[in-house]
Amino acid sequence: MRHVHLWLGLSLGLVFALLGLTGSALVFYVEIDKALHPAIARTEAASAPSWTSSAWDRALAAGRARWKGAPGKWSFEATGEDGMIPARFYPASRHAGHHAPRLMVWFSADGSRVVRAEPWGSYLMTWLYDLHMDLLAGEPGRQVVGWSGYAVLALLATGLAAWWPRGTWRKAVAFKRGAGPQRRLRDLHKLTGLWSVVLLIVLSATGALLALPEIRTALFAAAIAVPDDVPSPRSAASSGRQIAPSEALLAAHRILPEGRLAFVDVPPAGAEPFRIRVQVPGDPHRRFPGSYVFVDQHDARILAVQDIRRGNAATTAIGWIRVLHDGSVGGLPTRILAVILGLCPAGLLVTGLLHWRRRTAARAAMNPMESRS
Fold first, then answer.
1. How many domains does the chain have?
2. Region 97-116 average pLDDT
3. Is residue 53, in this structure, part of any structural domain at all?
């Protein structure tokens, strides 16, 4: 087990440390980005737009006027906080989904003007996000990150097995202060791993599930049930006047009146519907909840509803993956804990490498003929 743990650590340690450090920074992704742009953050102090606010209509009009002639989808975020309205603009592209090329846009609180606009990946926090998600290598990098997450589980398991006490537990968890550097490094590596191993297993497992959704679906299908598919309805007509976002929101609010608005996805002209993302009671994630209302973009008819409360056990379990991974499950205390845990892989890498190098050097000194051969 020690040999397996050693070689897994030497091969995976750098990736594990990188993912941990970038993950720590991303726990407070929004707050750090606001701190890096204080002048823009201070420009507005109006109340957050509600379900019935006309600010959504004005923001869409301002965005389409700014990028006139560029068809694409708009996604407006309802933060629930006073100030600017964050949004994403996805120009028409052969790529689809959340990771398609996009422009990050911030509108004034009343939606009347664009305050800030930057391409995704062009500023620090989005660059760190891409580094964490796919090592800046797109889909191949995401595969590496995902499978590395599963390999890290083996690294942690072998480390725990190699440590498992054969004598007294008191000795196994002790830190010998008066020992030599080699023993102190070993104890520091051991104790850092021991206090963090369970939570690092949670972070690694949830990260792997987020990075590889196809594997996640297969695992949940085998263990619990096939997760519910998110509906993909189409508007009845493919052309005609597109309703305003406020009309779509009014229709969606009637269906889920107890829900909290999270995102308003406005499609380009065509057959795609409006998609209203909602946090219903019991959904653990505030920012990226799992319930949706799909509204016909031409006549405001409800086309489909995805209510996480009516999903099967697999769908319910999937709803907890992100909050466990980003530390938001318990609010500010668990987010701070997630930051600290993200630093542990780097500490384990450094102490493990130093211990291995000192041990190798000591063996070479004791057996010079063997080292030369």
1. 1
2. 88
3. no
